[in-house]
């Protein structure tokens, strides 16, 4: 079984055929899909998506590119939502998608940092791992993690550095803090030499799989909507890069996902 640790199945791109997309993923061997929220306005959509489609599990947070239209009271509302959902039938597996994005200049970096730091504190309070958005902000994210969780790591919290695209040194720093690194369609592109080299050589126990669907399509689906069923071919390519069997790769990344997102193990696969 495969676990897609990051897929926006609630996105509008799937409105016309969401049930079919989820079914195709199950047929491809994707037994669990983590669906992260991006703002307060789509928390309910993420929950409803996960309740309707077997194997889908929610994460709730405010994405760095959405903090420009979020108010400070959104943080209190997010906390209230998380507390309610943690007592409900489908509790969140993580807080996310949260983090920093220094690639675009559209959102104030200080406002991003404020929302990120407050959500890390919320994760610490509730004992939840985090799904990190890290774009051209590896060191800044690491700094925030150390400030909130301590320089010795995020024991009891941890999480996933989604769509990892940093250096080897930065990868090792995230691993030292108790994080796994998310790899997806980017590793299938021959020109993505750094990502492919990292995916091939980092400790296997540090890796988890993701699609980020409908975004970040793999090379074999260039120019079209990405889907969670693509995870099977992504996994096969990663296995080939590492020189191990597809079965070994699936078993390892499944165990890694459940280790860093322990609530996954409490729910049956689709």
Distinctive features:
270 residues, alpha/beta, 9 helices
Structure description:
By secondary structure, this protein is an alpha/beta fold. The chain has a single domain (2-266), classed as Metal-dependent hydrolases (TIM Barrel, Alpha-Beta Barrel). The protein is 40% helix and 15% strand. The protein is built from 9 helices and 8 strands. It has helices spanning 18-27, 43-52, 73-86, 109-126, 138-149, 168-176, 193-201, 231-242, 246-260, and strands at residues 2-4, 30-36, 56-60, 94-101, 130-135, 159-162, 179-183, 207-209. An 8-stranded parallel β-sheet has the order 1-2-3-4-5-6-7-8, with helices on both faces. Helix 4 (109-126) packs parallel to helix 5 and helix 7 (193-201) packs across helix 8 (231-242). The longest helix is centred in the middle third of the chain and has 18 residues, at 109-126. The protein is globular, with a radius of gyration of 17 Å. The model has no long low-confidence stretch (mean pLDDT 96).
Q: With helices defined by DSSP (H or I, 4 residues minimum), what is the helix count? A: 9
Can you tell me the CATH architecture? Alpha-Beta Barrel
Helix and strand succession? Answer: EHEHEHEHEHEHEHEHH
Biggest sheet strand order reads 1-2-3-4-5-6-7-8
- In the CATH hierarchy, what is the class? Alpha Beta
- Cα-atom Rg, whole angstroms? 17 Å
Strand coverage percent: 15-25%
Mean pLDDT: 96
State the low-pLDDT regions, or none. none
Fold topology:
Elements: E1 2-4, H1 18-27, E2 30-36, H2 43-52, E3 56-60, H3 73-86, E4 94-101, H4 109-126, E5 130-135, H5 138-149, E6 159-162, H6 168-176, E7 179-183, H7 193-201, E8 207-209, H8 231-242, H9 246-260
Parallel strand pairs: 1-2, 2-3, 3-4, 4-5, 5-6, 6-7, 7-8
Helix pairs in contact: 4-5, 7-8, 8-9
């Amino acid at each position: 079984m495969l676990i897609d640790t990051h897929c926006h199945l609630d996105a509008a791109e799937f409105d016309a055929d969401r049930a079919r997309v989820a079914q195709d993923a199950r047929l491809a061997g994707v037994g669990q899909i983590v669906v992260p929220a991006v703002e307060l306005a789509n928390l309910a959509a993420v929950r409803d998506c996960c309740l309707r489609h077997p194997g889908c599990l929610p994460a709730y947070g405010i994405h760095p590119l959405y903090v420009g239209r979020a108010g400070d009271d959104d943080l209190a509302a997010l906390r209230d939502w998380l507390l309610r959902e943690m007592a409900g039938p489908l509790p969140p597996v993580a807080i996310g998608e949260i983090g920093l994005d220094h690639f675009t200049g559209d959102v104030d970096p200080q406002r991003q940092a404020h929302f990120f730091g407050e959500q890390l504190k919320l994760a610490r309070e509730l004992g939840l791992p985090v799904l990190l958005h890290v774009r051209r902000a590896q060191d800044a994210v690491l700094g925030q993690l150390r400030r909130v969780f301590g320089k010795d790591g995020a024991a009891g919290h941890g999480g996933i550095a989604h769509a990892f695209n940093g250096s080897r040194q930065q990868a090792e720093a995230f691993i030292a803090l108790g994080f796994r690194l998310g790899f997806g369609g980017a590793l299938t592109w021959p020109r993505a030499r750094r990502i492919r080299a990292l995916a091939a050589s980092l400790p296997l126990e540090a890796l988890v799989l993701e699609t980020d669907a409908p975004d970040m399509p793999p090379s074999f689906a260039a120019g079209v909507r990405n889907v969670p069923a693509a995870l099977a071919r992504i996994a096969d390519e990663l296995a080939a890069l590492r020189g191990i069997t597809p079965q070994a790769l699936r078993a390892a990344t499944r165990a890694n996902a459940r280790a860093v997102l322990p609530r996954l193990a409490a729910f049956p696969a689709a």
